[in-house]
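TICKET: design request
STATUS: open
ATTACHED STRUCTURE:
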C-alpha cells in the first residue's frame, strides 16, 4: 500500500477565478489554460465555489442562440465543493474518484486553495506504483 500523498502529485500552477468574473471571460480562460475546472475564491481568498467547463455550457449554448452572454461565475459555479487535503493518501483519493463523477478536486488546507488533483494524476501515479 502506498503512503504517497496528494501533495506529491497535485498541480499548483492553476487558474483561479472570482465569482464576479463574467462567465464568457471565465469560459475563455478555462479553454485558454486547457483547464477542466478552476476554484473560485471569495473576497476573503477562501474557496467559495468551483467552476468546470461543463458549468459554462449553458451560458455558451444560450450565447450561441441569442448572441448574448449573460451572467458571471457566481451564477454558474458549484457552491458545495468536495475538497481533499494535501496530506490525504492517494489510495483514499482514488476511492473518492470512484465514488464521485468528478474529474478534479481542489486541494485545500484551512480553506485556502493549494492546488488541484486530477483523476489522471492519481491514475498515472497508480500505474507507476503498480
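STATUS: resolved
RESOLUTION: sequence designed for all positions
ATTACHED SEQUENCE:
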Amino acid at each position: 500500500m502506498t503512503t504517497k500523498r496528494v501533495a506529491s502529485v497535485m498541480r499548483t500552477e492553476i487558474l483561479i477565478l472570482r465569482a464576479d468574473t463574467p462567465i464568457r471571460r471565465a469560459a475563455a480562460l478555462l479553454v485558454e489554460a486547457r483547464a477542466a475546472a478552476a476554484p473560485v475564491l471569495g473576497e476573503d481568498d477562501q474557496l467559495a465555489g468551483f467552476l468546470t467547463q461543463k458549468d459554462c455550457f449553458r451560458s455558451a449554448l444560450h450565447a450561441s442562440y441569442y448572441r448574448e452572454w449573460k451572467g458571471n461565475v457566481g451564477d454558474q459555479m458549484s457552491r458545495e465543493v468536495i475538497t481533499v487535503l494535501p496530506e490525504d493518501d492517494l489510495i483514499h483519493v482514488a476511492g473518492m474518484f470512484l465514488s464521485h463523477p468528478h474529474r478534479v478536486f481542489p486541494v485545500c488546507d484551512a480553506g485556502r486553495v493549494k492546488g488541484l488533483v486530477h483523476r489522471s494524476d492519481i491514475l498515472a501515479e497508480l500505474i507507476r506504483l503498480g
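CLOSING REMARK: The first strand starts at residue 17 and ends at 18. The domain at 6-129 is CATH 3.10.580.10 (CBS-domain).
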